[in-house]
Amino acid sequence: MKxxxxxxxxxxxxxxxxxxxxxxxxHACAAKPDGSWMVCHWAEHVVTALGAVFAVLCVAxxxxxxxxxxxxxxxFVPLAIVTALVPGVIVNLCMMKDMHCHTVMRPAVVxxxxxxxxxxxVDAIVLxxxxxx
Length: 133
What we know:
By secondary structure, this protein is mostly helical. It is built from 4 helices and no strands. It has helices at 6-24, 40-61, 66-85, 100-132. The protein is elongated. The model has no long low-confidence stretch (mean pLDDT 94).
């Protein structure tokens, strides 16, 4: 195992919060009385899956050298943008703006995605500058 950095741990924690939190804490709306699901339910599942992808890639980062870690960090940038766009853009949310998916899930996903984007971009820049020396 290579040296684990602070950014490795931060990215893993943010990814796990995204993956688990989107299903537990800032989930989409509950099932309808008839047992069917609203469309935001599928946005929750997509965000959970993307959070799991982030987490798996974060664990993989523990085993690679700086240049490979930088490449993985760079791949997080477009993935974070797509994740931020899932609730409400890629997958529609409920029609009522005061529903849980609009007031809790979407802001949480956007904030976590932006944090992952910022940390991974800074990490990639630092790693690439370090390997150029």
